[in-house]
Amino acid sequence: MKKIEAIIRKSKFKEVKEALHDVNVNFFSYWDVTGVGNEKQGHVYRGISYSTSEIQRRYLSIVVNDDFVQPTIDAIIKSAATDQIGDGKIFVLTIEEAYRIRTGEKGVESLN
User: Fold this and answer.
1) For 108, what's the count of Cα atoms within 13 Å in the CB-facing half-sphere?
2) How remote is the C-alpha of 71 from its chain's centroid?
3) Is 89 helix (H, G, I), strand (E, B) or coil?
């Protein structure tokens, strides 16, 4: 099992959510976040200058079995990309074990 953490533009969340559903990833958690990035380049939109590190972000936390890792990553990249600085990041972590609290199921069965 893997945990996929993605930080995306808040404006792309609906597209990412639909792309995840299309590859049968139907459960994940998310939070609204703000962070500071390394990019110093600013952008101008409607005459207002803003920093890419101040764009509102959404943080997604997704746990999938190993077969779903690459389709999940591909869905996020394809749907979240704008080809602009500040599109986000994806991190993949190994999950040692998972349990469903209600039934006590563990491992991959707890994800279904």
Assistant:
1) 5
2) 13
3) strand
The residues that bridge with 2 in the sheet, in sequence order, are 64, 94
Radius of gyration of the chain (CA): 16
pLDDT in tens, 19-60: 999 999 999 999 999 877 666 556 666 776 666 556 789 999
Residues pairing with 93 in the sheet: 3
Q: Where are the alpha helices (DSSP H) in the chain?
A: 13-22, 69-80
Domains of the chain by start residue, with CATH: 2-111 (3.30.70.120)
> From CA 101, how far away is CA 91, in angstroms rounded?
26
